[in-house]
Every structure is written in structure tokens, then in C-alpha cells.
Amino acid sequence: MCHIYYPNIMNTHINYSHENRHLIVIEDQKYRQTISLEDETYSIGRNTNNSIIIRSQQASRRHGTLMRRKNHRNNTYSYWIIDGDLDGNKSRNGIYVNGEKCLIKELKNGDLINFGCEVNATYYASHEWSNTVTDITKTKPHKLTNNSPEVHSQYSLSQPHIDFNYDSQVLNPKDTLKAQEYQDALTKLPNKILLKEYLLNSLKNAKQYHTSMGVLLLDINHFKTINKNWGYPVGDKILVEVAQRLKSSLRDSDIVARWGDDEFIILLPKMSHGDDIEKITQRILKNVSKSLEISKTLLYLEYSLGCAIYPQDGESSNILLRKAEMELLNHKKEMISSDQKSNLTIDLKASKLLKAKTALQQALNQQELELYYQPQIKIKTGEISGVEALVRWNHPELGQINPQKFIPVAEQTDSILIIGEWILKEACRQNKAWQDMGLPSFIMSVNLSPLQLKDPNFINIVKQILRETKLEPHWLELEITEKAILANSELAYQVLQDLRQLGVHLSMDDFGTGYSCINHLPKFPFGTLKIAQSCVQTLTEKPETVAIISAAVALGNSLDLRVIAEGVETHKQLDVLQNLDCQEAQGYLLSQPLNCIEATRFLDLYQGSKISALLG
Fold it and tell me: For the GGDEF domain, which residue ranges apply (predicted)?
């Protein structure tokens, strides 16, 4: 980058008048342009369609914008310079005012501007000019030569020589516009005022060119608790970090602004495809959900989102903003409702949940999570028909923690999305590894969380994992509970149909605990029916349980489904299941969940063995 140098105005003289005038002198190594600023906005850049053209190949086509703003308290106005255009496109090399790089800045009399290259400018705000002002739109810029007195051998220009009668034009600091009116002081992002300017301009362009645009609101959950527990300085550091991560997650044309205390707004002025909002949202969440190191402690935050898209959600800025805010509130309510319904023996205060989420994320990052595998056995032949992957947490201090204790917390804090993806990938990788070892091929069953079912990107995640692990889809089975299906049967139906089209097997888990899915079962693309452990354990104690399991087996056989009984722990339970014509079983009587090494040895030793050998 070239050194900043200063333009020179020769033989310019100022006469006093009551009308303020604004002037910008733009100069490079060959030309000087003197422009009187009178319009509301001026576009600046290399493109010849700009209001002000700067001649440099290093300059962007739309490098900056001058925007006039009035101070209604004293009826004066000043110009602000913005990096890029009002569509959100940023310049390539940035804009520097008095040597400081800035996104937006109010210009003061005598400010020196550099466009990140050999082009510089000086801004003047004074009373009416006595000389004739050169208008770039009417006359060619004045050409400087090597013999011109303004240029010396190093191509740097001398300091301005001008008499402004400066004392007569100094404004009271209280009457001048403040930078914070357009820029958030903490994050240095645009604030509400400037974002609305961007939004209005983007709407205008979207209407003119018949394109789509989006508004996305992001809120940091439990932020008041963070401020309370860690203090406001820590809260400020978090806001600055989140702001930077949001900026790095966006395309060049997108704009992020500070919208409230713990809320950010993202403007997506160019949406050429319907899935843009989904892709951008996933990228944002993936980036901001990474750990933050606060006082040598890793912290994982939770977020709520709300979005609105033009034109389907509204055609005015106010309607779009209200729609996004309503979506955000609904997301928060869903999370609160989920928290209230969870049967956790954990303090539901936000600070506890944040610590729990942090611990789970650390467990995953530090490889404390491990998969165990429980075989599924064909009762009549004794053959191993499949295995179910079960996650365990090997805590360095508490020892092994069962999933019944930490999975509900993971679902409550949305950590289950990351953990669930890891479980799915590890299970597929291990199944392919066993196949490559020459062991008989069988189905690997993986439990699916209700939150994964709601994740709009889940189908793509499954596709990617199968592609990366090179596992054929028909060797993977996903288990979904009755409760998850009934929570949103229409969504569940569509997701399950998409999964079945991939070739993945589907299993209804915990059947018999709700009974209400019996009428819905035929329309869902299930291949397996798993009888709940709670039913099997009361099989020999409650006669009505026998009737329930008998009905489940008959229903499964009539629909040509695999029927597996979970939680088989006694010979008597197994005998009753066999008499009821139940096809398969799993439980501690047959095998407890095994780690990778134990499961490999088990599969190799008992392949093709009869159940009597397994029980012996």
C-alpha cells in the first residue's frame, strides 16, 4: 500500500457567508478533482457510473459512499463516508480517515482520506466558496504534470494552504453528530440507524430487480445471566467476539449490525437461491457456537434465531423486521417450553445450563465420549442381526456416565446436534471398518434425537457422513421414538421419507409406551419396530403387558417389519417373547453394551453361533 499524501488547493480563497458549503478534493498522481457536495449521497469508485470516479486499478468499482445527514438541532449538516456501497459491498482495500481504517465515519473540516491506494482526498466544510467550484460531472479533472508546483519527485503533495477563518465556523461539540449515531461503540458494527439505511436501499433494489432479500435476527440466550455471573467486562468481550465471528461468517454483500444489548441483525441483500438463508444460517451457527475462552474457562453460548424474507414475508422494512422479531420470540418460547417439559434433576437456571453445555462440548473436544455397541440377536437362529450404538461419557473425575443422565441435558442445550452428528459418523465409520475386516455385514442402529429431526440440514448431514465413511446406506438404521414422531407428525413424515429414499433403514423406538402411534404406523416408512424396555421388564409380572407385546408383534409381522424386544434380562422373558413369535431381542441376558475392542472380539467369536452358545 502506498504512503498517504496530502492534496493541495492552489490559490483558493474563502469569503464569509451564512451558508455552509462542503467540498472534497480528490487527487492521485496525475489528476485533481474538486467537487462541491450538495446531493444526499455520492457513490465513489473506479466504475464510470459512480458519482465520483477515482482512477486507480487498486480501487474497487464501488469503493465508498458519501452520505449527507442533517442535525435538526441547529439546522446544519455534515457528510459521512462509508466503506463500500449501500448494498453492503465492501471495498477491497478499505478507507482510511486521518490514517485510521474505518467502516463509517463523520467527516470533519480538513479530514484526510485515503482509499487504500495512491488516491487521496481532503474534505472541507466552510462557508460559501468565492471561487468557481469544479464539478466532476461537468468538466474533466485537472491534470498534474511533473512540472506542476504541487508535485515533487516522490509524488507526495504539500500540505493544504488555505485560509478558512476557522474560528468563525467552529461548532459546539454538543451540536455535532456523534459517530455512535451510526456505529456501535463497542463492536464497531453499524447500529440500528445505519442498518435501516442499508435495509431501505436493499428493499429498493430488490423491488427494482425482482430479487429476494433476507433479514436475520440473532440473540444470545441467557446473556443477562452471563453479565451477572461474570461481570459486564466479560459480557462486552463476548459481544465483540460474537460480532467478529458473525462478520467472518458472511458473504461480502451481507451486513451485520448491533441491534440491541445482546442481539444482532444480519441483512442479506442478495439472495439468488431459495436455500441461501438456510446455508448462511448453518454457517453462522457453526461459527458462533464454537467455544469462547473466558477467564481461562471455555464457554459455549446458545442462540435464538428469527428470519424474514422479501417478498414472501413482507414488502416493507417495518413488516420484515416485525416478522423476524416474531420468529425470534417464537424460537425462544420453544426453547423455554422444551426446558420446562424436561424431567431433569438439574438446576434449570441459565448459568447451570451454560456450564453443562460447556462440559459436554469439552467432553466431545477432549475425546471423552465413546461408543459402545449392543448386539441384536435373532431368537430362533441365534445369529447376530445387528448392533445398536450407545454413547458413554468417560468423565475424568466422575467415571463413566450413562446417556440417561447427560443426553437430556444435551437436548436441553442444543448440544445434541453436535454430539448426535459425532455419534452417527463414528458408528458408520466403525461399521465400515468391521466390514473391511471381513466380519459379516449387519445393520448399525443409531438413535435420532427429536432436535435432529427438526434440523433442516439433517438430511445433508446423513448424506455427507455416508459419503465420507463409504458405508452403504442400507447398513445404517436410525431409531426414532414415538414421542418425537407425534410432536410433529407432518415434519417427521417428510424427513423419514427423505431418509428412506436415501436407502437408510428406519426403526420406531420405544414402541408400547404411548400406543397412539398404532394408527400412524402404516403410513411411515419404518422397517423395524422396537418394543420398549419398560414393557419387556414387566412382561412376566403384568398380564396386560403380554397382550400389548403380542399385539405389537402381530402388527409388526402384518406390516413385514423386524420386531426387536429391548431390555431382555432373564430367561423367562426370552421364553415368553419366543412363544409370542418375537423375531429378535437385545439386552444384558444376551450381551451388555461392549466397547469397540470387546465388540470386535464378540462379533468375530460368535458369528453364526446359536443363542444357546451365547447364553452358555
Answer: 211-346
